[in-house]
Design brief:
374 residues; alpha+beta; outer membrane lipoprotein receptor (LolB), chain A; Glutaredoxin; 2 domains; 13-stranded antiparallel β-sheet; seven-stranded mixed β-sheet; 9 helices; 20 strands; elongated
Length: 374
């Protein structure tokens, strides 16, 4: 009996060894080209209206670095060569999160590749385009789905990879060493592996922790002066309570009524550096700041859910947000933005009455009309 048990565990150990996952580093270069010169002119012309900071956020990476181990894939996305990664995608246990290196914020992230392009059965073989990439023979496959535009070059050698969604580095157990995607606006994105290496950064926990420093937590703590107020969400026509908030650039508490008494109207905006619509809305608020004098309009931006003090300050300074800045708290968020939709903007008059609640990015015309007294 003991001999049978020994053989069983020996067989189990051999099976586990034979199922060893690929561990290593994969480096891809990504290039953008166009079908016609006119496609290029149109594409870049569409982005001229945005600031350099926003272009960074929307830009496609020029390279990606995959760190692969048994059950986890980290995907570093670089918008420029030889600079800090902008985002790190964390694919583990069939979940995909995105770490924003600027804010330190980790967000749940969906796999935005159409599911039809992730199913190997939707591909057909194109033998005459086979290539040798990194000394490996690669077979070419093309998606047969409607409007199919994705070609992939696969290694002919099966390599067991983490069974995680979102990593997009394998199909049917084979590494994708090259991928070409065609888009309806004339873009052609080519992603090709540049080299493969051994796994040097094996401690993923420390790697994530280095980009996920939390020094802002104390700024979001409850404020005693606000304890008398209920967490009831404000509606248009309500009177706003005299809530207190911690100032970002000065070590002091400020209160709402100080601002509302200085001007005819006061804007309260809830935002975060991790929120792309918030950064877009900043340009609209800057326009209001230039158009209306301080005695007519006060502006307060309350930061939400960021993790690093210096990064928040840096974004405010780089985007030239020349108005008052504070940190929100759970109570402030419950009262000003119960549904946690961002960005959120409220307008108060100098009697603290709520005149407007909405989105500064989409409702800017209405916002400007109210402040202008129309």
């Amino acid at each position: 009996m003991k001999y049978i048990i020994f053989l069983f565990f020996l067989q189990l150990g051999f099976y586990s060894y034979s199922q060893e996952y690929y561990k290593g580093t994969l480096n891809y270069k990504i290039s953008l080209s166009f079908n016609k010169a006119s496609d290029s002119i149109k594409y870049y012309g569409d982005w001229e209206k945005y600031s350099p900071e926003l272009l960074k956020i929307f830009s496609s990476p020029v390279s990606e670095k995959y760190l692969v181990k048994k059950d986890t894939v980290l995907i570093y996305q670089f918008l420029k060569e030889d600079v800090q990664a902008q985002y790190i995608l964390i694919s583990a246990k069939n979940k995909l999160d995105r770490l924003d290196v600027t804010s330190g914020q980790i967000n749940k992230w969906g796999d935005f590749s159409p599911k039809k392009y992730l199913k190997f059965k939707s591909y057909k073989r194109i033998a005459d385009e086979d290539e040798i990439i990194l000394q490996k023979e690669c077979s070419v496959w093309l998606s047969t789905s409607k409007n199919g535009w994705r070609k992939v070059w696969l290694t002919n050698i099966d390599e067991k990879l983490p069974s995680t969604e979102g990593s997009q580095i394998f199909l049917d157990g084979k590494l994708i060493l090259k991928q070409v995607s065609f888009f309806n606006d004339g873009r052609i994105i080519t992603k090709q592996i540049a080299n493969r290496g051994s796994l040097s950064e094996s401690n993923f926990g420390k790697l994530i922790g280095a980009h996920n420093k939390i020094d802002i937590k104390s700024k979001y703590l409850p404020i005693a002066e606000n304890s008398e107020y209920h967490d009831k969400a404000l509606k248009k026509g309500d009177l706003a309570p005299n809530l207190h908030y911690r100032n970002i650039f000065e070590n002091k508490l400020s209160c709402l009524y100080e601002s509302t008494q200085k001007s005819k109207y006061t804007i309260i905006e809830l935002w975060g550096t991790w929120c792309v619509p918030c950064l877009l809305a900043t340009e609209k608020i800057k326009m209001l700041r230039k158009k209306f004098k301080a005695e007519h309009l006060s502006i307060i931006s309350l930061n939400c859910r960021d993790r690093n003090i210096e990064k928040v300050k840096s974004v405010i300074e780089k985007k030239d947000m020349k108005w008052e800045h504070g940190y929100t708290t759970e109570k402030l968020t419950s009262i000003f933005n119960k549904k946690r939709s961002y960005p959120k903007l409220l307008i108060l008059d100098n009697n603290n009455k709520v005149l407007f609640i909405g989105n500064p990015q989409t409702d800017i015309d209405e916002i400007e009309a109210i402040i202008a007294g129309k």
